[in-house]
Amino acid sequence: MKRLVRHPAAQAVFAWLLGLYLRFALRTTRWRLEGAEHLGGLAAGAPHIVAFWHERLPLMPQIWRATHLLPGARPPRGHVLISGHRDGRLIGAAMRHFNLAVVSGSSSRGAAAAMLRLAELLRGGEAIAITPDGPRGPRRQAAPGVAQLAALAGVPVLPCAAQTSRRLVLRSWDRMVVPWPFGQGVIVCRPAMIVNRQDWRTALPLIEDAMSAAADQADRLCPA
Predict the structure, then answer these.
(1) Which phi-psi region, left, alpha or beta, contains residue 184 (left: φ > 0; alpha: ψ -120 to 50)?
(2) Is 158 helix (H, G, I), strand (E, B) or coil?
């Protein structure tokens, strides 16, 4: 059974099914958006780093859908940074159901190459989504990459979160949230943050606090 689960064909089928399920669950959830004014730059086509905690990853494709629904929206294409190990590849394949491209890399493997690729995408006018505590934690503790990338590329960080009233919370290191269908959902966007190229270390805890504030606000607005 373990051999079967690890087989690339089995993983591809599971990723396809997972993507279909998430698409169904997110589409049947009734969403509202808090902080729509902070999405204005992204909706207008400006490159951004959309940052959120790893625990909310299954919910966050909804941010791109919400951005596209804003009046006159023409947002850039979204790219998601996903770790290169087996679980990351599985999530990455599921994200493609939402027309999101995948960049492979993590803090432990392929970090330098991924950082250069992301900076290149941002300078080319694209947007990227990143989970600064992924793929293995510690939970809600941001790695330096999110601030370094914002400083390097000269683009703002948009701290976001989402929550849904019908959900399963996994017993994983990050307590990942998996949505059930037919719930009530909320997306929270905090003000975009500019990172000074000479002082990214000062910005890192501020980004961390903003992402946690967004997640806590989403939890308050959408209790189980």
Answers:
(1) beta
(2) strand
Q: Bridge partners of 30? A: 184
Please list the residues that pair with 130 across neighbouring strands: 51
Task: Return the amino acid letter for 107.
Answer: S
Residue 185 sits in a domain whose CATH number is 3.40.1130.10
Instruction: Kindly report whether the peptide bond that precedes residue 138 is cis, defined as omega within 30 degrees of 0.
Output: yes
- Specify the DSSP class assigned to residue 43: H
What is the phi/psi pair of residue 128, to 5°?
A: -130, 150
Dihedral of the CA atoms 165, 18, 145, 117 (nearest 10)?
-140
- Count of CB atoms situated within 10 Å of the CB of 197: 11
* pTM of the entire predicted model: 0.91
Number of domains in the chain: 1
Residue 172 pLDDT grade (very low, low, confident, very high; cuts 50, 70, 90) = very high
Q: Note down the domain range covering 195.
A: 2-221
Q: Which amino acid is at 223?
A: P
Name the phi and psi angles at 97, rounded to 5: -65, -20
